Amino acid sequence: MTDQAAPAPLIGPKRDLAPLLLPLAIAGFAFLLIGSPTTWLTLTLAALAMGMMVFVIASGLTLIFGLMDVINFGHGAFIAIGAYLAMAVLGPLAPWMQADSLTLNLAALFLAIIAAMLGTGVLGYAFERVLVRPVYGQHLKQILITMGGLIVVEQLLHVIFGGDQKTMALPTALRGAVLIGNVALEKYRLLAVAVGLLVFLVMQLTLNRTRIGLLIRAGVENAEMVEALGYRIRRLFVGVFIAGSALAGLGGVLWALYRETFTAAIGGDVVVLVFIVIIIGGLGSVGGCFLGAILVAMMANYTAFLAPKVALASSILLMVTILMWRPQGLYPVAKR
Amino acid sequence: MADPLLRLEGVHTHIGQYHILQGVDFTVPEGGITMLLGRNGAGKTTALRTIMGLWRPSRGAITFDGRAIGGVATPDIALAGIAYVPETMAVFSDLTVEENLILAARSGPIDPRRRDWIFSFFPAMQRFWHAPAGVLSGGQKQMLAISRAIIEKRRLILIDEPTKGLAPAIIEGMISAFRELKHEATILMVEQNFRFAAALGDTVAVMDDGHIVHRGKMADLAADEKLQTRLLGLALDQHQ
């Protein structure tokens, strides 16, 4: 072939680093405006914690959208179910939560998270089977039916657990802050950052180092060709939907503990933010979703301090600005 | 005479309200290259997609290696030993060349001897081994799409217009590559470039308006200008 003519150097992957500079630029700009390093550091940690929780919730949704082309407004239902399941598990484990032992505290949280992820994973399977599968490829119907599913789940939670506001207190060892110099770093926020980073790491390893991960990335681009290579994309769809729902359940636990009070509307409240994050990141891109979640959280926290009246609109303003720069999001995934 | 590897009998395919294949009958003998020719819109791509299970035949029978595959799910058809190179190439742009081939190697890790054999006629695959497929040129993407189909031994390879949009120099190189490949697997190829088809094909079927209108040896069609004009609209010397 024509390329046989001369030996050429091996060509490696190109890295698009420009979007990675955005959080640094925003943090640097905020530092200049805030002035106080202590306040800036506290706000930045709060932003990272919030960003990680939003990422955990959004990561599953971006894969569901990217791979299955499903607009799932029902994702919020799994956030709420995760929060309620955790509350149900942590109730009987109150002695462990109140014990002055980090091990017992974390063991209780771990059990609550496992219950929430298993429960939302199983319900995710049922949700995909009953509601989503009949409307593959029909976006308007997807929006209507998944929104309907969200409303039904919220009402069922009211019926089962009551319509009043629920509380979920932090375990003893995770209350308060760690002082480093003059900077107070809230312990729970540090845990949320650690969990978010762990989820990101596991997802990156899965997507880049395993055959299942390659299939998911390939399926996001061209599901038909994945089938033509001999893989059953339907099973992959179901697996991703279950994993995405379980991640929403995990995010629900983290988010409810972060807020300490919640209602069945907790999912619906956060799902708009989640959609903004996955649009900013590029639909189907886990890396973009991670970066988008951090950016949205930074804007929310910095503007809440600097200009509270703008805070509510900060996510929308950020999305508009980024889409003007990159209309397909920060890391667009090529589609067939 | 030996049984053909692939047989289509009275195959009809509807896409929405359109009746595209209207009783297609042809066979692909084992070994060599069978060309599927015809004017634009004759139904060639639909025929390949129907064989691959990407469109469901509404009527008729498709038999591969003695087994009925009409209406069978696409992954099962692939696992039966049929590879598909679509007209769009459908390489996974976000994945590297290596990762594209890892996915195509169904039975396990890529065989290094097989990989080196592919490098011998598609050296660009070695050069771009760790690069995302999205950075490849059109010709290189076509090489990757074909490499994906041959990274493991297959009984039958369906290839849809491999020369579409490629420069003449690359097409010449592809002819050499396919001459080597046809010793390895049976190929059913849709092609618009008659010179390319004439240089490679052993047998030929010509489609028009959803039917097969001619079957025979490729050399006979290449030698008969009147037949070419009648079936395809142009004689060989008028083709690119």
Keywords:
heterodimer, A: 336 residues, mainly alpha, ABC transporter involved in vitamin B12 uptake, BtuC, two-stranded antiparallel sheet, 14 helices, 4% strand, globular, disordered N terminus, B: 240 residues, alpha/beta, Rossmann fold, 6-stranded mixed β-sheet, 4-stranded antiparallel β-sheet, 10 helices, 10 strands, 35% helix
Walkthrough of the structure:
The complex is a heterodimer of chains A (336) and B (240). In chain A, a hairpin with a 2-residue loop joins strand 2 (177-180) and strand 3 (183-186). Chain A is mainly alpha-helical and 336 residues long. Helices cover 72% and strands 4% of the residues of chain A. Chain A is globular. Chain A starts with 20 loop residues before the first helix and ends in an 11-residue tail after the last helix. In chain A, helix 2 (37-68) runs parallel beside helix 7 and helix 3 crosses helix 10 (233-259). Chain A has helices at residues 21-34, 37-68, 75-90, 94-98, 102-132, 139-161, 187-209, 211-221, 223-228, 233-259, 266-281, 286-306, 308-311, 314-325, and strands at residues 166-167, 177-180, 183-186, 261-262. Chain B is α/β, with parallel strands linked by helices and 240 residues long. Chain B has two domains: 6-81 and 154-238, P-loop containing nucleotide triphosphate hydrolases (Rossmann fold, 3-Layer(aba) Sandwich), CATH 3.40.50.300; 93-152, no CATH class. Chain B has helices spanning 44-51, 74-79, 97-104, 112-121, 123-127, 138-150, 168-181, 194-200, 218-223, 225-232; strands spanning 6-15, 18-28, 33-38, 59-64, 67-68, 82-85, 156-160, 186-190, 203-208, 211-217. In chain B, strand 4 (59-64) and strand 5 form a beta hairpin. Chain B is globular, with a radius of gyration of 17 Å. The model of chain B has no long low-confidence stretch (mean pLDDT 92). The chains are: A mainly alpha (336), B alpha/beta (240). Chain A binds chain B through residues 1-4, 8-14, 211, 214-215, 217-218, 220-222, 224-233, 333-334, 336, and chain B through 52, 54, 73-75, 78-79, 84, 86, 88, 90, 92-96, 99-100, 102-104, 106, 121-124, 126-132, 134-135, 139-140, 143, 148, 167, 169-170, 173-174, 176-177.
